[in-house]
Design a protein that fits this description.
The complex is a heterodimer of chains A (115) and B (114). Chain A contains no helices and 11 strands. The radius of gyration of chain A is 14 Å and the shape is globular. The N and C termini of chain A lie far apart (41 Å). Chain B has 114 residues and is mainly beta. Chain B contains no helices and 11 strands. Chain B starts with a strand and ends with a strand. The relative contact order of chain B is 0.33. The chains are: A mainly beta (115), B mainly beta (114). Chains A and B meet through β4, β5, β9 and β10 of A and β4, β5, β6, β9 and β10 of B.
Amino acid sequence: EDQVTQSPEALRLQEGESSSLNCSYTVSGLRGLFWYRQDPGKGPEFLFTLYSAGEEKEKERLKATLTKKESFLHITAPKPEDSATYLCAVQAPWYSGGGADGLTFGKGTHLIIQP
Amino acid sequence: NAGVTQNPKFQVLKTGQSMTLQCAQDMNHNSMYWYRQDPGMGLRLIYYSASEGTTDKGEVPNGYNVSRLNKREFSLRLESAAPSQTSVYFCASSEYGDGDTEAFFGQGTRLTVV
């Protein structure tokens, strides 16, 4: 069974204080690992897809990295507008069944950036 | 370009009532999904449709039915609502296959069953 565990559950940082969010996963044959941002009362918003160990992607103050067992979302010099819940999800191979083309999500990390 | 549109945005039902949640996407995606999001549980897949004319169960399908009306529309029906179905429901769509398959989500339907 595919599993995704995110840590910490909540994180409070000062503006400009860099940190990392962790996503540990177990899946047979990873097709993709996804990071989403979710603001209160809204649907998840796509950030990154990572496909293979060693891959990195960046967008503004965010950088996502991937190993064979986990992914990190690094936030550099965050601003208050980066406050949100960050969701990690994995996609299993199509042949694994049970919603194979759907995503298995972690519970998210609630990030608060204080001015 | 609206992306994924869900209706209604909010709904209150009495136990035993039925309703249909509507979802439409304008990105010409083949795959569509229904998720529910509960506090402390994360997003869980209810049903998905890999292409027009096909539907399959996800992780938590009990108490729900779906219809893939055409390539654009994917509806979720609660035949006899129960308080355990109080949740936020998200519809999503994505392209199917290898390569960029990120899912795009709607704004959600907040359902309360009393």
